[in-house]
Amino acid sequence: MRILFLENRYSTYLWDAIAHELENNGHEIYWIVQNREFTPKTGKIFQLDITDNGAGGEERVYDAEIDKVIRADRGLNYFGVKSHDHLFSIKRQIADIVNSIQPQVGFGECTLHHEMIAMQTLRRIGVPYLFPTSCRYPLHRFSFYLYDRLMPFAGSQETVPYQEALDAAHAIAERRMKPAYMNLFFDNKPGVARQLTDKVKILRGYINGERYNTPSPIQKFRMKHTVKRNTKKWDSIASYTLPEDGSFILLYPMHMQPETSVDVWATEFSRQHQVIQQLLAHSGNYVKIAIKPNPTSNLEISEDLINIAENNDRIIPLHHSVKMEELLDATDLVVTITGTIGLECAFANKPVITLIHSFLNHPRNCLFLDKYEKLGSIIQSVRNGSFPTLTETEKAEFYIYLNKISYSGSISCTYWQSDVTHPKNLRNLTNAFTSVINTIRSGEIKSTSPEKVN
Hints:
Layout: E1 2-6, H1 11-24, E2 28-33, E3 44-47, H2 64-72, H3 74-77, H4 86-101, E4 105-107, H5 113-124, E5 129-134, E6 141-146, H6 162-173, H7 181-187, H8 192-207, H9 217-237, E7 248-253, H10 260-263, H11 272-281, E8 287-292, H12 303-310, E9 315-317, E10 333-336, H13 341-348, E11 352-354, E12 366-368, H14 375-383, H15 392-404, E13 407-408, H16 423-441
């Protein structure tokens, strides 16, 4: 099978190890590389010309696809890139590569602009593009998400015993079990030497032309200063507790940005201060909205968000030190875009709604809010006790469902978790990739006949 991988910095090393195993099993391996500092060793490499800024007469066709890339692009939104001209050059180069190799499946993240464009290119001709990443729960498992949606493709269909599933559901509900990624940045912080090596590698890539997904040293300094200033200002106006005045408490946990979970999977909600404004506009005056920042918040704490928090007495900005378990008992309804809290609330029978439809909405007590106008009726269902709840059996069944749509193995960037290339984990990952390749080959997702991409 002809397999196309997409380079994504340190994730590339894990993809490369998997690609090596797949190549040994007879598959053809191809790569699209954006940052040559992370060029893999396996397969045939197609290096994008990132020095071409697209200003020299590249055809510009503005459509829904390129509009999404522009709205989701980290360089344009966060890293100080002033023009999107280069996207048209990247789009043309990727189309030429796909026409040349005619891949039958693509694997990679859906985070950076070259990955999003490659995903769109493959989707147009009916070729699956799969984003392998942690599924949150069960622990030490992952799913393949199809294209740019939080919808798992296939799955191992592996089950677990009922009592084991129910025990796990209770552990999640009681917050005795947490996804590995929540501890990753604290337990696996690289040493000084590794950090220095990384800085040199990233800077070398920037000097050699990788300017669109890497901020300049000056821009990076500005970003850090902005984060530090806004975090300090937020905490200066923040509360450590929720009010006990009889108000209906709607809790909104912030999504860290930049992050795929919002910028790509939920592009229309990536301006989170606008989400807060909509929640305010579509809820009654008796509703107070508590905003919980991510413990490692980044650029999502904006001046716009701070202004809303400062100038509306229905907003309760919470301090960064406040933990989720300190809030849930006093919370009436949780609103999340794509957050793990959706799963946790479902297992705990805590009313929760999401703004994006995904596998999180599989249980009947995690509702998808397709229109802000429906928020009022959902709030009323919480107040009158008619919001859906799960039985113990349904909790166990939901956990079993999560196990079936995922695969055994840990997926992570090797910078933060170098042991993901351990032989045992690599064997699990290779088995999962092989399984999903066989599913595609069997025709569960049918690719269209090879055709030229424009």
